[in-house]
Write a structure and sequence with these properties.
336 residues; TIM Barrel; eight-stranded parallel sheet; 17 helices; binds adenine; binds zinc ion
Length: 336
């Protein structure tokens, strides 16, 4: 089977996807017009042309500006449905979507407006596309822990509607330790916990995420490669990394895809997965990430199957939900 068809046929879970980062410029403009929201760019073309990032912050500035177009429940529904259609076409069977409530509540959009729209899309995706999903609330780490606690208080009356919490936004200078108390509370509430760490931040932030936040997965984590003890621990404990190769190149974490350390992490026995992060900004959805990474790093078919298997195993679904996807994955692997 040709590589792209093979990668599409593999059942995959996407575990690192910011739903606000799937806002394509065309939809951004349509929503901004519908909602009477001004955007900092004159056209769709000018918006795309502005996507030349030098680091994480240069991206985040544009990402938050674009998110201002999202106001109503239907906007969040439309946004997530557009993502689910792309995911289904890429062979994604399950997606765990990050959302950033503080980006919206700070503009006067109610938490429940965001949640209602996303949740309706999750139900529709299951019914119409057969794609399963979960929602993970991310705290913005450039804001205070008090602000995170206030966001958790807003979420608490609707807690069963989210599956976990994460930590995103500007990493440097905002270590996981800043959020130790709020994560402890989230764990007490029975939520799954993940955090971005080691994207731009040092290996010490990955240690903190593991030891202080007690996360179940590390989002990105690529800077673990600088610390042999950390690599050994991640491998031994089977902690999944949700790696986003095209994102890392766009944000200058690696100069080019062939310099990416994903193969090194994988071959060290770490449970690596491939994800798209903010596909509307970084030039590719999950299949494109698999394809370009496979080619740039010359990953074998067995390694690609292992990465897709890792994504299913690292997802927060029950064994009963996972079993048919794993069976299909092994059948595709055997037939290739
Ligand atoms: N928010 C959206 N994408 C992000 C990323 N790659 N890192 C940190 N925060 C983000
Ligand atoms: Zn991310």
């Amino acid at each position: 089977m040709e590589l792209e068809a093979f990668l599409r046929a593999l059942p995959k879970a996407e575990l690192h996807l910011h739903i606000e980062g799937s806002l394509e410029p065309e939809m951004m403009f349509a929503l901004a017009q519908r909602n009477g929201v001004p955007l900092p760019w004159p056209s769709v073309e000018a918006t795309r042309a502005a996507y030349a990032f030098t680091d994480l912050q240069s991206f985040l500035d544009l990402y938050y500006a674009g998110a201002a177009a999202l106001i109503h429940e239907a906007d969040f529904f439309d946004l997530a449905m557009a993502y689910f259609h792309r995911a289904a076409a890429d062979g994604v069977v399950h997606a765990e979507l990050f959302f950033d409530p503080q980006t919206h509540t700070a503009r006067g959009v109610a938490y429940t407006t965001v949640l209602d729209g996303l949740e309706r899309a999750c139900r529709t995706a299951q019914a119409d596309l057969g794609v399963s999903s979960r929602l993970i609330l991310c705290f913005l780490r450039h804001l205070s822990e008090d602000d995170a606690f206030a966001t958790l208080a807003e979420a608490e009356p609707h807690l069963s509607r989210i599956h976990g919490v994460g930590l995103d936004s500007s990493e440097q200078g905002h270590p996981p330790s800043k959020f130790a108390r709020v994560f402890a509370r989230c764990r007490e509430l029975g939520l799954h916990v993940v955090a971005h760490a080691g994207e731009e931040g040092p290996p010490a932030y990955i240690w903190e995420a593991l030891d202080l936040l007690k996360v179940e997965r590390i989002d990105h984590g690529v800077r673990a490669a600088e610390d042999a003890d950390l690599m050994a621990r991640l491998a031994k404990e089977g902690t999944p990394l949700t790696v986003c190769p095209l994102s890392n190149v766009k944000l200058c974490v690696f100069k080019q895809l062939k310099d990416h350390n994903l193969a090194q992490l994988l071959r060290a026995g770490i449970k690596v997965t491939i994800n798209s992060d903010d596909p509307a900004y970084f030039g590719g959805y999950v299949l494109q990430n698999y394809l370009e990474t496979a080619q740039a790093l010359q990953l074998s078919r067995d390694e690609l199957v292992q990465i897709a298997r890792n994504s299913l195993e690292a997802s927060f679904v029950s064994d009963a939900e996972r079993a048919p996807w794993l069976a299909r994955l092994e059948a595709v692997a055997a037939s290739a």
